[in-house]
């Protein structure tokens, strides 16, 4: 996932990007070409081309921020509950060893809360909430070499 939970952009960052698009609209109105606008705003020409198309169809309001892209699959309360379950360990949820893997966490989320995350979505969710992969000491016959832990 490119952005953090809830679309990823903070309100300030979303406002900044909208201001960049508004500056582009001012350039369109003055008759500047796409390459000049892209250089001035330090963005890719393709972005300026897209913005110009939107501007031609809907004016400056077509370049306004649409807000948060999607709602998070888990609410903050549900994530807090998930954390409690993760702290219990994987064995408490029926796995043969205490190691949390992304696939196990994905299955736990689906069983407990319903929404189906991808492996990459689970990794992004955990990273947003301060979890990270932790290396484990390898024992002969041990499973995965790393697991997920808070902190």
Plain-language structure description:
The chain is mainly α. The chain folds into two domains: about 5-65, no CATH class; about 75-150. It has six helices and two strands; from the N terminus they run ααααααββ. Strands 1-2 form a two-stranded antiparallel sheet. The protein is elongated. The two termini are about 20 Å apart. It holds the Pfam family HTH_33. This is Transposase. InterPro entries: Homeodomain-like_sf (IPR009057), Winged_HTH_dom (IPR025959).
Q: What is the count of distinct domains? A: 2
SSE topology string: HHHHHHEE
Instruction: Determine the structural class based on helices, strands and strand pairing.
Output: mainly alpha
Please give the share of residues in helix.
Answer: 40-55%
Shape: elongated
Radius of gyration: 22 Å
Query: Mean pLDDT score, rounded?
Result: 83
Strand order of the largest sheet: 1-2
Q: Distance N terminus to C terminus?
A: 21 Å
Q: Regions with pLDDT < 50 over 5+ consecutive residues?
A: 1-7
- Strand tally: 2
Beta content comes to 5-15%
**Total count of helical runs of at least 4 residues:** 6
| Major pleated sheet | 2 strands, antiparallel
Domain Winged helix-turn helix: 98-140
InterPro entries: Homeodomain-like_sf, Winged_HTH_dom
Protein name: Transposase
Organism: Kitasatospora kifunensis (Streptomyces kifunensis)
